[in-house]
Design brief:
Helix content is about 40%, strand content about 15%. By secondary structure, the protein is α/β, with parallel strands linked by helices. It has a seven-stranded parallel beta sheet with strand order 3-2-1-4-5-6-9, with helices on both faces. The chain is globular and about 50 Å long. The model has no long low-confidence stretch (mean pLDDT about 95).
Length: about 280
């Protein structure tokens, strides 16, 4: 990588994008921070970017040679807007792309799985990050966190299924390595925390850390679909509720060594993250 290389971070104000941008800057890399409102971020060049506004794509790509890609939120078919953008990126000289996907979606699967499948044919240097569910879903800007703050309740259709929840800081650390190492991973990377936890266990940790009771309400798959469909398109609600059902059936009950292998340090556990992000709010 040359000293003039620039990474375009799409979704630079989001959960992983903001952390990836900050860690790239700390490593001395040049960052173009892209968001719909071109929100200024320290030590970056900020640019407006909207997946659904093609006029914003060219200016965002100008001079960038690598990409961190966060798909459009809530779109059941992100490939429709992402693949034309990625072809444009390749045509203007981008040579490496790192895509944020999900441990629940394999290459060729639904939604961003189509982009995952296409990425190796578009770029010689690439990686797909497939993190498990974020620990920050319970501490940041997410429906679970809202429910915890407002009602002390986590609502899922995941039953007693366990998930290798992962810290967004660890996802960003892997993203930085995938973007800046001399050799790109050229594979997909499943990212988890150090151990799998059920939502009942998550609720117990949150109760202990915050000093406020938090409980996990078990919903049926159909009840979860109806609840989600009040706020998001039904097709997307069905997909998310299906992911909860897969958790209940054991699909996410696993851990990997990816964070340790790529960053040289073990992934953060949930209690550490909860204490870091929530204990200061204890009454």
């Amino acid at each position: 990588m040359t000293v003039t290389a620039t990474t375009l971070v799409i979704g630079a104000t989001g959960t992983t994008g903001s952390r990836t941008a900050a860690q790239l800057i700390a490593a001395g890399r040049r960052v173009r921070a892209a968001s719909r409102r071109a929100t200024p971020l320290p030590d970056t060049e900020t640019v407006r970017f909207d997946w659904y506004d093609r006029d914003s794509h060219g200016p965002a790509l100008a001079g960038a040679d690598r990409l961190y890609l966060v798909p459009p939120v809530g779109d059941p078919d992100p490939a429709a807007v992402m693949l034309p953008f990625l072809r444009q990126a390749r045509a203007v000289g981008v040579r490496r792309a790192v895509l944020l996907s999900s441990s629940a979606i394999p290459g060729g699967g639904p939604a961003v799985g189509k982009v995952h499948q296409a990425l190796p044919g578009l770029f010689a240097e690439w990686a797909v990050l497939r993190p498990s569910w974020f620990m920050q879903n319970f501490t940041g800007a997410h429906a679970h966190a809202d429910g915890i703050r407002e009602d002390g309740v986590i609502l899922t259709a995941a039953g007693r299924g366990r998930v290798g929840f992962v810290d967004a800081d660890d996802i960003a650390a892997v993203a930085v390595r995938a973007l800046t190492d001399d050799r790109a991973p050229n594979t997909d990377l499943v990212l988890t925390g150090p151990r799998a936890l059920g939502h009942d266990e998550i609720a117990a940790v949150l109760t202990d850390v915050t000093g406020r009771p938090v409980i996990h309400h078990h919903l049926t798959h159909d009840a979860m679909v109806e609840r989600l469909a009040e706020a998001i398109p039904r097709e997307f609600a069905l997909m998310l509720a299906g992911m909860d059902r897969a958790i209940a059936e054991g699909a996410e009950d696993r851990t990997t060594d990816t964070v340790l292998r790529l960053t040289g340090r073990p992934p953060s556990d949930f209690r550490t993250v909860a204490e870091r992000e929530l204990s200061v709010r204890k009454s």
